[in-house]
Amino acid sequence: MKVYIDSKKFLPHQLRWWELQNFIKLLVGGFGSGKTFIAVLRAIYLSYLHRPTPGMLISSTYQMLKRTVIPTLNDIANKSGLDMTYHKTDHEVTIHNWGGKFWLASGDDPDSLRGPNLAWVGIDEPFIQKKEVFDIAVSRIRPRIEGDQKEIFLTGTPEELNWGYDLAMSEDIDIGYVVGKSTDNPFAGEEFIKHMRSVYTKEMQEAYIEGKFVNLKVGRAYKAFDRDRHIKHSDGKGNICAGIDFNVDYMTAEVFILGNGWLHFIDEIRLSFSNTFELAEKLNQKYPGIKVYPDPSGSGRRTSSSKSDHQILRDYGFNVMSKAKAPAVMDRVNAVNSLLIQGRLTIEPGKCDWLVKDLERVVFKSGDLDKTTEPELTHASDGAGYAVDYNFPVRKRDAFTVER
Fold it and tell me: For 256-304, how does the pLDDT look when each residue is reduced to its tens digit (9 = 90+)?
């Protein structure tokens, strides 16, 4: 059986990447630039080229696989008439037309990637994954026969000057590197680009639209905050809620009014050398029965109590709203900056002093929020951030694939 791929329908940067002859093929692009589409198509093609030896396509999490890779895989299979089976338990994809096979895997547990030899490996969004994922992927690739061409390909959006940047800039390894912009994809749509420009900082636009390597994890975390713009009185009507960060020192609740598309912070409760019981009691005295958005990690039981932090809040009558898993720090920071840019996050004058300090002074250090230089910082903005990310998340992974 012969496989025909119409490369004339590729976007220019997709075609340049596809034709690279390097062992490592890297496509760096903005959101909506067709990275996931071309990565999945490459996986299908390599399953034919190297049949019956399997390959592997790795995403950052299984949730990301479900949200981007698997829908793209199904879409390509349906439109091309491929006889494909996806075994959900084993995460195994079989292309029956030619007996090709590859696995879908998650990089959040690098050790789980160890195993049998592979003909090829692809990594989608590698720059938000550990370098260990790449190292293990390289170690698993073996040629099927003498002279067989091995391959590892990577498609992702640059988020910081980490190992991915070092890899792209290296002159000591066989790597080809292509950049694709969101604006290069006519199928993404003008509204999509316009929306990104309206909610992203200048640095975020360079990374997420232009596909440039930008160190977003440096300097002030909340660059969009401006006292003159964001500290003001509001007569807006809405429900009183709170974002909560659990720490012995400091337990923090940031209280806000949640309106139609906006948040206005009006109060904060901050306790030193405390616990969730005391925080819940203080919050209940002022704002009984409100909706709260705590750190998702508080759903697990602690050794200091038979109850989880979330259950303690429920026992006090609060309506607990929480994601199953804590958002990535950068996603949470981006969500806060996005609302600040749009003027949809404000603070009542004379209130929430610690939140103001955080928004002005919290910085990145070694690729994460600096929680050690000034240990009294980050708690207020973390609490506020959980509420912001729950209600107004920035859906920053590819929302569009290239229609064919």
Answer: 999 999 999 999 999 999 999 999 999 999 999 999 999 998 765 453 4
Question: 291 and 178 share a domain?
Answer: no
Q: In angstroms, rounded to a whole number, what is the distance separating the alpha carbons of residues 400 and 404? A: 12
Structure tokens at 314: 């429920």
Q: DSSP string of 190-221? A: HHHHHHHHHHS-HHHHHHHTT------SSSBS
Asked whether residue 164 is domain-assigned, the answer is: yes
What's the pTM? 0.71
Alpha carbon separation from 376 to 159, 271, 282 (Å, rounded): 27, 11, 20
Q: Is 156 helix (H, G, I), strand (E, B) or coil?
A: strand
Asked if the structure places residue 251 within a domain, the reply is: yes
Give the pair of three-digit tokens for residue 44: 């299908």
Write the CA distances from 379 to 14, 243, 248, 261, 371, integer angstroms: 43, 10, 11, 24, 9
Is the residue at 216 inside a domain? no
CA 162, CA 107: separation in Å to the nearest integer?
Answer: 16
Distances (CA, A) of 224 to 22, 28, 221, 247, 333: 40, 26, 9, 26, 11
**Inside any domain, residue 404:** no
Mean pLDDT by 10 residues, the chain (404 residues): 77 93 92 91 93 91 89 91 90 92 90 85 90 90 64 87 84 89 86 87 88 84 93 92 91 96 96 93 96 85 67 96 88 93 95 95 87 93 96 62 31
Number of domains in the chain: 2
| pLDDT for res 239 | 96
Query: Judging by DSSP bridges, how do beta strands 364-365 and 368-369 pair with one another?
Result: antiparallel
Does 22 lie in the same domain as 68? yes
Structural domain boundaries, residue 335: 227-391
3-state secondary structure of 51: coil
C-alpha–C-alpha distance, residues 3 and 402, integer Å? 20
Peptide bond between residue 52 and the one before it cis (omega within 30 degrees of 0): yes
Q: 357 is written with which tokens? A: 């300090």
Same domain, 159 and 289: no
Looking at residue 254, which CATH number applies to its domain?
Answer: 3.30.420.280
Both tokens of 113, joined, read 């990637």
Burial (Cβ within 10 Å: 0-12, 13-18, ≥19) of residue 255: buried
Q: What is the pLDDT of residue 146?
A: 53
Give yes or no for a contact between 169 and 149, defined as CB atoms under 8 angstroms apart.
Answer: no
Specify whether 343 is located in the same domain as 197: no
Classified as helix, coil or strand, 180 is strand
